[in-house]
Amino acid sequence: MNPSITFAAKQNFEEMVYLTRQEHFNAAHKLYNPKWSKEKNEQMFGVCANENWHGHNYDLFVTIKGEPDAETGFLYDVKKLSIMIKELVIDKLDHKNLNMDVDFMADKMCSTENLAIAIWQQLSPHLPADVKLYCIKLYETQRIYVEYFGD
Amino acid sequence: MSNNKVAVYRKEHFNAAHKLYNAAWSEEKNKEVFGLCSNKNFHGHNYDLEVKVVGEVNAETGYVIDLKLLSDLVKAEVLDKFDHKNLNLDVEFFKSLNPTAENIVIVIYNILRKQLNEKFDLQIRLYETPRNFVEYPV
């Protein structure tokens, strides 16, 4: 077989890979809109509006996509990804009060939806150009999770 | 003599805020002993609770205990008091007791023990996270 034909075929082959790092953090929060009365908050958010907070064990899945580097075989160094998530996200959220202690959640409603979007915004600018953030998947409980794809 | 004792279990869960803090200690000592868990603005968990009841299978019903009754009991006596609450601020048992997983499991046992017929054995397992859990009594 002519080796150049094999090489040409490989060049056209798609090699997009998705890589996910799983993390977790424990935090307190409440769902409470300060523009509304206590009654309206309780009507809308129910037990989640408890003024003294409640809390969750959050599970976080960060998925990036790209093509493996020809020399390393890596899409991205997972150690670097792990440190990035730890410093930009986990250290700021773990064992914290999401409403009171987290700079990037200030003035936002601390829903799982908003938290997933904010985590995307924390991480996205720090990835190299050839590595794209694909999905932030965030579990608030084992049975409730949200996904954000940057749309 | 035949032994027809069976263990039946009811699994429940609740979400709560807490902090580990000994008011008799300085801020520094609390941080040293309890680390991140002493964060003054609290943090929180999804707690998973397993209630184990051991007893003889009743000849007429085939039950050890009606699990609907056990479920209603756990809901009224535990979940309604703990779920979506701040354990330190909202739950009377922890006004002067540090809400560690150890103390929470003892409190839950004592609450349920009072309500259950003494012919049953009772044991509680409490998960604070999927990897940290406690059991009482042992």
Structural notes for this entry:
The complex is a heterodimer of chains A (151) and B (138). Chain A has helices at residues 3-11, 38-45, 78-93, 98-101, 112-123; strands spanning 17-29, 54-66, 96-97, 132-141, 144-148. Chain A has 151 residues and is of the alpha+beta class. Chain A has a single domain, classed as 2-Layer Sandwich (Tetrahydropterin Synthase, Chain A). In chain A, strands 3-1-2-4-5 form a 5-stranded mixed sheet. The radius of gyration of chain A is 20 Å and the shape is elongated. Chain B has 138 residues and is an alpha+beta fold. Chain B has helices at residues 27-34, 67-82, 87-90, 101-115; strands at residues 5-18, 43-56, 85-86, 121-129, 132-136. Chains A and B meet through β1, β2 and β3 of A and β1, β2 and β3 of B.
Overview features:
heterodimer; A: 151 residues; alpha+beta; Tetrahydropterin Synthase, Chain A; 5-stranded mixed beta sheet; 5 strands; 28% strand; elongated; B: 138 residues; 31% helix
How do the helices and strands line up, and which of them pair or pack?
The complex is a heterodimer of chains A (151) and B (138).
Chain A: H1 3-11, E1 17-29, H2 38-45, E2 54-66, H3 78-93, E3 96-97, H4 98-101, H5 112-123, E4 132-141, E5 144-148
Parallel strand pairs in A: 1-3
Antiparallel strand pairs in A: 1-2, 2-4, 4-5
Chain B: E1 5-18, H1 27-34, E2 43-56, H2 67-82, E3 85-86, H3 87-90, H4 101-115, E4 121-129, E5 132-136
Parallel strand pairs in B: 1-3
Antiparallel strand pairs in B: 1-2, 2-4, 4-5
CATH superfamily of chain A: 6-pyruvoyl tetrahydropterin synthase/QueD
The fourth-level CATH homologous superfamily of chain B is 6-pyruvoyl tetrahydropterin synthase/QueD
Second-tier CATH architecture of chain A: 2-Layer Sandwich
Radius of gyration of chain A: 20 Å
CATH architecture of chain B: 2-Layer Sandwich
Give the distance, in angstroms, between the N- and C-terminal Cα atoms of chain B: 26 Å
CATH class of chain B: Alpha Beta
Tally of separate domains of chain A: 1
Count of extended strands of chain A:
5
What CATH calls the topology of chain B is: Tetrahydropterin Synthase, Chain A
| Spatial arrangement of strands, main beta sheet of chain B | 3-1-2-4-5
